[in-house]
Structure formats: C-alpha cells, structure tokens
Design goal:
alpha/beta, eight-stranded mixed sheet, 21% strand, binds zinc ion
Length: 454
C-alpha cells in the first residue's frame, strides 16, 4: 500500500460515465479524491485511458500449472469428469511451496490482465495423505503469501468438502486433501482469517464446495461461519450433476438451494449453467451473483449459461478465471457474449438497449465482482485505489473514444492494450509487464520442471 500517489487521465470511466481530464489521488490504498476537468499536477503520473480494476470472482490458482496437460484424448469421450481425474492426480503431488509458486504466477498474470482482486475458491487444504498440516490453513497462508507477492487483493474462500457425492457417497482417495468435518472446517475458517491478517484489505468468506460434496445438515451448520463475508458455491455446472441431484432429492441443484438456503446478495453461485426458466428467474430475483467462467466452461464442455433470460430478470453476474487455463479478462467477456450470439443468432446480445455491448459487459462484471468479493470497486472516493491504464497507441484503440474504447479493448485488442495496472495506489504493471514477473516466472518454472521430472 502506497501512502500517497496520484494520476491524471486524459479520459477515464467513472461511475457516472466517461469524463475527460480526470485526476485521482490515492491515500493508504483508497481513492481519496476524483476530479474531472482538472489540470495535471507535476507530481501526477499520467495515463491515456483509465478503467477501474475488476474482481476475478472465481479461481483455483494451482490449476494454472495444469494448463495444456489435459489436451490428450483418452479412450471414449473426454469430459469434465475425466479432466477431474487428471486434476486429482496432479493435486496429489503438490507441496505448500509448489502451491505458493504456482499461485504467485497465476496472480501476476491476473494483475497483468486487469484483475485487481481475486476470489480464491481454495480446496487444497491437507497433506497428501489427508492429514491436516500443523497449521490447518497452511495452504491458505501460502495463497495469502502469493497474493501479497503479486500485489493482488485477496478474498479467500476456504472450501468445505464433506463427501464424495450426493447422498453421503464416501470420498475417494483423490479427494483426501480437501475433506473436513464441520467442526474441523470451523477451525480452518478461523485459521484462514489469521492467515490473511498480514494483508491490508483481505476478506474471508466461506465456500461449501457444491451440493454433491456437502450434505444438507452440514451446509446449515457451516453457513453462520461466513460472518460478514460472502458465500460461494459451485452449482449446476454439469448435466450429470443435475441428474444426480434429481435422483437424490427430486429437485435440480439451483431449485434445491433456493428452497433450502437463504440465498441473497451475499451469495455467489458459480457456473449455474444448467437452469430451467423458473430457476433462472428465481436466481435473478434473489440478488445473488452468478459467477460465470466462460473460458473454463468452454474448456470443460460445461454448456452455455442462460444469460439472456437471466439479464431480463435483472440478475447480477461477474466473471472468474476458474481453472486458469487462460487468464484474460477480455477473453472472458468476449466469449460470454459470443456464446450467446452463436446460440441466439443475434448480435450485441448482452447490451442494454441503445448502449455499447463492451460497456454493458464491463459495468456488469465490475458490479458483480465487487459484490461477490465483498469489496467496493470503481473509480470513486472510498473505493480501493485499483485501476487499469489502456494504451491509446494500440492500433485497435486508434481514434476511439468513450464506450467504443471498451468495445475495442474487449473485442479487438484484448490484454495487449493494457499498459499499466495499479493496485492499492501502487503501480504494479508497466508496459504490460508486472514488476515481479521475472522472479515469479523463475520460481514457477523450477516447480514445473520438478513436477515434470517426478
Ligand atoms: Zn471452480
């Protein structure tokens, strides 16, 4: 956190819209002043185009190291479930040092992509034999250390994983490192709060993994542990999961959750891919955030979220990088929109009428990310001093102004157009490169070579 810093933008996206000659002063990591139509002062850094930093509401950082290792087709159809077997084998070998190095790499890449906060849906808790470490939040502490090294804001979501499948199916050996009783989970959440305490503005929420991994009594028992923090859950990502839930309870996952828990603004339902029209309307009304991860959902063959009906119902949503197979904010927003175009045979599907699609996507993801991660966002007084500077010299931005900047960034330029990223009033990325990139890559590479040699 920088004690005091300031920047002057030729133009910037404020909560009320685009403004010219915007001066922002940050003090102790928060925005202390936003002035439009202001002259630059000598002490100001300079930026062409300013955007608020966005929250990445769903990440499993360690999976970054698996990217590209699951592209070999097995016998029969590959699926989410065969991918999951490979993930379990991979996760079985990771040490705390490995996890810290891999997470630091993922977080450096997130900051470079324009994400200034991450929701880490963290389920790798115990040693390879399933025994907790001396500090039950040892792995959470490594996540916190990685976030600190990369400078990204952290909302840590320790995961509660109680069983292998619906109806009390016993967990398999591949799940041993994730499991807790409800009592052990309460201790883990406490230890997680201690683990993030060195970070300036970390948050801790809770994350019952999914309805398949958490039985109803245990879900009710752990919900009060959230305190003021958010509640995240994976839900209805796969058709088989929906069928298993129906066989177990007679209800679909989203339907079951809405009937059995007080789902409200504090909740983030991750994926929610497979919903009926009724579930979609009810989830939209609940105030919960739908956590959409379009790149991972495409990679895993999950399906398409019913975004048109959900938006029509006023539903909140944000984006996450989930498996981190690729880390790129513009990719997530573009793929979300393109999936809907391919399905509905129309254009600018997720735009409000009379408005730019890029601006509509960006505004929604900013608001949803902030709500899901329990931290305000946006270039306004009191919000974290987190912003992204776009490079006006990028060819895709030539001659662009106002919302056309966002349409060009998301659909034409992508991450390449990001010049700088500031977080907590500190410049972390210059010319598209994080200042910790070289050191982080060296550590990451050493871990990947070690794992490849095992
Ligand atoms: Zn996930």
């Amino acid at each position: 956190v920088e004690p005091k810093s300031s920047i002057h933008f030729a133009s910037a996206l404020l909560p009320a819209g685009w403004a010219d000659d915007v001066r922002i002063v940050a003090e102790s990591g928060r925005i202390a002043l936003v002035e439009a139509g202001a002259a630059a002062r000598p002490e100001d850094a300079r930026g062409a185009i300013g955007l608020p930093g966005l929250g990445n509401l769903h990440s499993h950082a360690f999976q970054r190291a698996m990217a590209g290792l699951t592209g070999h087709r097995g016998t029969g159809d590959d699926s989410f479930w065969t991918w999951r077997e490979l993930m379990y084998r991979f996760v079985g070998r990771l040490t705390p040092d490995d996890v810290e190095a891999i997470a630091a790499m993922a977080y450096v890449e997130m900051v470079e992509a324009g994400y200034t906060r991450v929701g880490e849906f963290h389920y790798l808790h115990h040693g390879p034999d399933g025994h907790p470490y001396d500090n039950p939040a040892e792995m959470g502490a490594r996540i916190a250390a990685a976030a600190e090294a990369a400078g990204i804001g952290l909302t840590l979501l320790p995961v509660f994983y109680a069983q292998g499948g619906f109806g009390g199916v016993a967990a398999g050996a591949g799940q041993a490192r994730f499991l807790s009783s409800a009592d052990a989970y309460a201790r883990l959440v406490e230890a997680s709060r201690r683990a993030v305490s060195p970070l300036a503005d970390a948050r801790v929420g809770i994350a019952p993994h999914s309805l398949r991994a958490v039985p109803p009594e245990a879900l009710a028992a752990v919900l009060p542990l959230a305190g003021e923090g958010p509640v995240h859950i994976h839900i209805a990502e796969q058709v088989r999961e929906v069928l298993d839930c129906l066989a177990w309870s007679g209800q679909r996952p989203v339907e079951w959750l809405l009937d059995h828990a007080q789902v409200d603004e504090r909740w983030c339902l991750v994926h929610a891919t497979h919903m009926t029209a009724d579930e979609t309307a009810r989830l939209a009304r609940s105030g919960a955030v739908a956590g959409l991860c379009p790149v991972t959902e495409a990679d895993l063959g999950d399906g398409l979220f019913p975004a048109v009906a959900y938006r029509a119902g006023g539903g909140a949503w944000g984006v996450g990088t989930d498996s981190n197979v690729a880390i790129d904010l513009a990719d997530e927003l573009r793929l979300l929109e393109y999936g809907q175009r391919l399905q509905h045979h129309t254009r600018n599907v997720l735009a409000d009428e009379g408005r730019s699609v890029g601006r509509s996507l960006f505004d929604a993801a900013l608001a949803g990310g902030a709500r899901a991660l329990g931290m305000p966002a946006g270039l306004e007084q009191g919000a974290p001093a987190d912003w992204v500077t776009l490079d006006q010299d990028h060819p895709a931005l030539a001659g662009r102004a106002g919302d056309a900047i966002l349409d060009s960034f998301i659909f034409a330029a992508g991450r390449e157009a990001i010049a700088e990223v500031w977080r907590s009033g500190r410049r972390l990325v210059t010319d598209g490169r994080h200042r910790e990139r070289d050191r982080t890559v060296a550590r990451f590479r050493a871990v990947l070579h070690k794992l490849a040699a095992e």
